[in-house]
Amino acid sequence: MSVVISSDNRKVTTHRLIEMKQRGEKISMLTAYDYSMAKLIDQAGVDVILVGDSASNVMVGNVTTLPITLDQMIYHGKSVTNAVKRALVVVDLPFGTYQGNSKEALASAIRVMKEANAEAVKLEGGAEIRESVERILSAGIPVMGHLGLTPQSINKFGTYTVRAKEEAEANKLIEDAHLLQELGCFGIVLEKIPAALGAWVASELYIPMIGIGGGNGVDGQVLVMHDMLGITQGFSPRFLRRYANLHEDITNAVSAYVTDVKRGDFPNDKEQY
Ligand code: KIV
Predict the structure, then answer these.
(1) 47 Cβ inside 6 Å of ligand 1
(2) What number does the ligand 1 atom closest to the CA of 54 have?
(3) 57-105 pLDDT, tens digit each
(4) I want to staple 260 with a disulfide (CB 3.0 to 4.6 A). Which of 72, 92, 208, 266 is the partner?
(5) Would you say 26 and 220 are in contact if contact means Cβ atoms under 8 Å apart?
(6) Is the CB of 31 under 6 A from ligand 1?
(7) Nearest-CA neighbor of 56 among 72, 71, 36?
(8) Which residue CA neighbors atom 1 of ligand 1 most closely?
(9) Active site residue 191
(10) CB neighbour list of residue 126: distance below 8 Å, 6 or more residues apart
């Protein structure tokens, strides 16, 4: 297998993502929710930064993504876009801001673009949200889709298990992916589906498929930053690879600091005026 890694420092755009797919360069995507981490991961070369509504879990401590509000997503989005120079910044539209009414969906997307300085929005679902996707795209706002395990529908699914294992659900996912491409979406996140299905959809569509538990045959990968850095605990799905153990590093650093303060070892002579 030949590996395509470009050292291209130009700003990543939705068009460039499609070019990357065409030349077989895999796309790297990570979530971020604040200025300092967004700056770090942008400088480390990630292609797409997603201000995910997983902020509801990792930033706010909610059990699901449902409670996070549009104002909160805009706050996180602005914090990220203030930092990012190269990556494409995509902001999730949160639950309840686009599903029922396409005019409301457009109003939500416009707020995210104007107030958070986002470059694209991500919405969960296929045919059910067709009108919302169309209306947002008609205003010139790039849209990313999200199919498979869509966490905003967790109350309908009742479980975070792998989706589209059965033929009917797999066929619906394939139809939805084609529909989103025809409408004009620039890419789709495929979450927690069989690898063979992910590879099949990626081979059929010209827009990039970005997997999270979507196998290795898709066009790129996305992970939640707190999971891949090992900050979150007690969450170990098969698709998650941990690249650091910041939970341990931060705990050790903080307890060393507490000990130094308690002992009167900090600050020392050189650390004071
Ligand atoms: O909100 C999020 O972090 C996401 C990723 C899981 C793709 O949508």
Answers:
(1) no
(2) 1
(3) 999 999 999 999 999 999 999 999 999 999 999 999 999 999 999 999 9
(4) 266
(5) yes
(6) yes
(7) 72
(8) 52
(9) yes
(10) 145, 147, 172, 173, 175, 176, 177, 179, 180
- As a whole number of angstroms, the distance between CA 169 and CA 213 comes to 17
Integer Cα distance of 122 and 71 in angstroms: 16
Going by their DSSP bridges, the two strands 220-223 and 27-31 should be labelled as: parallel
Query: Cα separation of 273 and 258, whole Å?
Result: 22
Q: How far apart are CA 23 and CA 9, in angstroms?
A: 17
Q: Is the CB–ligand 1 distance for residue 54 below 6 Å?
A: yes
Q: What is the pTM of this model?
A: 0.97
Find, among 55, 28, 46, the residue nearest to 85 by Cα: 46
